[in-house]
Specification:
Structural class: alpha+beta
Strand order of the largest sheet: 1-2-3-4-6-7-8-16
Helix content: 10-25%
Pfam family, one: PhzC-PhzF
Protein name: PhzF family phenazine biosynthesis protein
InterPro entries: Phenazine_PhzF-like
Organism: Arthrobacter stackebrandtii
Shape: globular
Largest sheet: 8 strands, mixed, barrel
Number of strands: 16
Number of helices: 5
Radius of gyration: 18 Å
Order of helices and strands: EEHEEEHEEEHEEHEEEHEEE
Length: 278
């Protein structure tokens, strides 16, 4: 066994323990895939990441992202959390205010603006309307009448999200889905907040299979939702979404559409620092 530096950070919240936790193992180049997966299974967090030396000169560091049961090519809150952990361990922001992360999905740019970090959302690999029978199934999972679903779209960017739009944030918060009916679906639900609210949209994420049932705050989902909502004129080019409310969290996701790119940002709060034997 070897001793490696280890941190846990809270992503999408400036208040500790109110966002989405991420475990980060530093200097993990000597670990095998099997060791990484086993440790991610042991932490039992939605994701655990491993920081490694980059393999291309354009990147500042490389990251591998694991859930308790599989490796992801990309995920949002692990991207921001890993960047913060890398910076806190001595990494340096480039002169243009960015950090470049290498992951299985390619190179991801991250803007650093004071305490706010934002990643450039990768392209959607599947972006199309959802078949009617699948929408019918989603209505049964969410336990809502079919006509309450205003629209639905595939928003695949690593995770296999299906975005579902409801009429209001109130309707999103009132959902009491049936986890047994979810199967392998990954459903992200969004609805607009009332005028004058602190945030413009309320978001919830429900994951099937071996993943976590309801994710507290989800960067990849919000990236896909932003591409969809801004692209269809439902959302303005810049807005803030809240997520995790039902779970007692205060997740805040900052969205900005800029020259065709979608930037997904939030605060990252360090919570735990130490070492781990692997």
């Amino acid at each position: 066994m070897q001793t490696l530096n280890y941190t846990e950070v809270d992503v999408f919240s400036d208040e500790p323990y109110r966002g989405n936790a991420l475990a980060v193992v530093h200097g993990a180049d000597s670990l095998s895939t099997e060791q990484m997966q086993q440790f991610a299974n042991w932490t039992n967090l939605s994701e655990t990441t491993f920081l490694l030396a980059p393999t291309v000169p354009e990147a500042d560091y490389r990251v591998r992202i694991f859930t308790a049961s599989e490796e992801f090519p990309f995920a949002g809150h692990p991207t921001l959390g890993s960047a913060k952990a890398w910076l806190d361990a001595g990494g340096t922001v480039r002169p243009d205010g960015t950090v470049v992360q290498e992951c299985a999905a390619g190179l991801v740019r991250i803007r650093v603006s004071g305490e706010l970090l934002a990643f450039e959302a990768p392209p959607l690999t599947r972006y199309e309307a959802v078949a009617a029978d699948v929408v019918d199934r989603i209505a049964r999972v969410l336990e809502v009448p079919r006509n309450h679903i205003l629209d639905a779209s595939w928003l695949v960017n690593g995770p296999r999200w299906i975005g579902v739009r409801l009429a209001s944030a109130e309707a999103v918060l009132a959902l009491r889905p049936d986890p047994a009916a979810l199967g392998n679906l990954e459903i992200g639900v969004v609805g607009p907040c009332p005028a004058g609210a602190q945030t413009q949209f309320e978001v919830r994420a429900f994951c099937g299979g071996d993943a976590v049932w309801e994710d507290p705050v989800t960067g990849s989902l919000n990236a896909g939702l932003a591409r969809w909502l801004v692209g269809t004129g439902i959302a303005p080019p810049q807005y803030v979404a809240s997520q995790g409310t039902v779970l007692g969290r205060l997740g805040r996701v900052h969205i900005k559409a800029d020259d065709g790119a979608i930037w997904v940002g939030g605060h990252v709060t360090p919570c735990v620092a130490g070492t781990v034997r692997l």
